[in-house]
Amino acid sequence: MTLHAAIEQVLLKAKTALSTAEIASVLNKTSWYTKKDGSAIQSSQISARVRNYPHLFVKSNGKISLKNTTGIFKTPIVSKHKKLAVKSSIEDSTLLKKILMNEKNFNSVADSEDSIPHEPGLYCVRIKNSNALPSTFQNALKERKHNIIYIGLASKSLKKRFLNQELKAKGHGTFFRSLGAVLGYVPEPGSLKGKRNQNNYKFSKQNEVKIINWINENLLINWVTHSENLNGIEKGLIVEYLPILNIAGNPEALDALRLLRNRCKMVARG
């Protein structure tokens, strides 16, 4: 990661303006950016880099903040500085992916849920220990050499889609349905009878609580707010990381997951 990208990450995570000394202190405690000679990052180095990227940072009253204070990455308006705008857009997209996928940015649901915003964006789910999954899915993660189990998007609200639907079963969450099936749960027989949608099965309230408890105990989550090209970015990340609980757009989607989901649909359809 470049220094200016690391500074952006510090400010995004801090959600407030920081002094150059404070930014340097954070970077010296993390591995987001390291100097080639291994020496400590100085506040003067932060100040110089900020001056070189006026389209990214604002300095006011001795504090540095992001030019986009909402934290949502947007494609810059193309003016006479077209090359700069295109370059900035590419850097924003690359930074977004780095922030989303950086393992150091993941936390438990309990430590994160109060911070998930009512804004569009992307989210990622990792598992602490793959041994908590059935062997078929354990082996798939070992083959893929990571602990990423799902990547998704929220076109309107991360709070509603990611937290409420996917992690709390308050609605129809694709991830929640898949995870429940993998853990061996099935919906109530015939619960989809007479309903227009014959795919969005739900588990009993008792089993939903068990799945939610399992999520709280075993999973780590991260997200980024974003408003541009969500489908394209999500698709690229799924192709790159092959999360084991993603089916749509996944070139190595697991047949075992399809079978378990189909089993749940058949039970719910009666």
Helix-strand blueprint:
Blueprint: H1 3-14, H2 20-29, H3 43-52, E1 57-60, E2 63-66, H4 82-101, H5 109-112, E3 121-127, H6 135-144, E4 148-154, H7 158-167, H8 174-182, H9 205-218, E5 219-225, H10 230-241, H11 255-269
Helix pairs in contact: 2-3, 8-11
The structure class reads mainly alpha
Number of domains: 2
> How confident is the prediction overall: mean pLDDT?
87
Q: Which overall shape is indicated by the principal axes computed on the Cα atoms?
A: elongated
Largest sheet, if any? 3 strands, antiparallel
- What is the assembly state of the chains in this entry? single chain
Cα radius of gyration in angstroms: 21 Å
Q: Tally the beta strands.
A: 5
What are the low-pLDDT stretches, counting only 5+ consecutive residues below 50?
A: 69-91
Strand content: 5-15%
Number of helices: 11
Order of helices and strands: HHHEEHHEHEHHHEHH
Structural notes for this entry:
It is a single chain. By secondary structure, the chain is mainly α. The chain folds into two domains: 3-72, Arc Repressor Mutant, subunit A; 102-269, no CATH class. The protein is 47% helix and 11% strand. It has a three-stranded antiparallel β-sheet with strand order 4-3-5, with helices on both faces. It has a two-stranded antiparallel ribbon with strand order 1-2. Helix 2 (20-29) packs across helix 3 and helix 8 (174-182) crosses helix 11 (255-269). It is elongated, with a radius of gyration of 21 Å. The relative contact order is 0.13. Mean pLDDT is 87; it is low at 69-91.
Short overview:
The protein has 270 residues and is mainly α. Helix content is 47%, strand content 11%. It has helices at residues 3-14, 20-29, 43-52, 82-101, 109-112, 135-144, 158-167, 174-182, 205-218, 230-241, 255-269, and strands spanning 57-60, 63-66, 121-127, 148-154, 219-225.
